[in-house]
User: Fold this.
Amino acid sequence: MEDAVKKDILGVLSHVLPAMKKYDTASVIELSNHVIHDAATYQDTDSISIAVMIYALGKMMDRCKEKDINISPIVDSVEKLYNALKDGNFGDYNRNMERIFDSIKKIDNKMSLYIEEVLMKAKIKKGSKIHEHGLSVARTAELMGVSQWDLMSYVGNIPMPYEKENISVKQRLDTARSLFK
Assistant:
């Protein structure tokens, strides 16, 4: 596992644990969005597994809250997962990851849907980064294996690079006009 990936996973898990202990489902789902971005960026199995796990935990917590199911054994497993990763014990890390997925599967039989949804979101986010570099939406969607509609819906809701830099419309027009003088 790359150091950057390990550091980011530890950071996210350090926020997931308190949210789980407080039964703060919304925070867990929000944290899953951060990790989905990492899965799209790093495209490694560890980032994708954590993204799926955290997303599934958020969904599972929602269902457990409705059914009044105790999630403390899963919280303990997530804590063990965090400690194993922090200590660099990848054998324990992998065993705890499997234990968490097994626990989620026992509580929530929609696990395979979560995996598909996280991977689709990761493809769309990665596609938006490719689109930022100048590829058309059609070509990017084709490369990423997603629909143009899904990609356009996502791209339409994120700020474009020039918006992040606070360049006004007038400045952009002046620059464009200067190219043709």
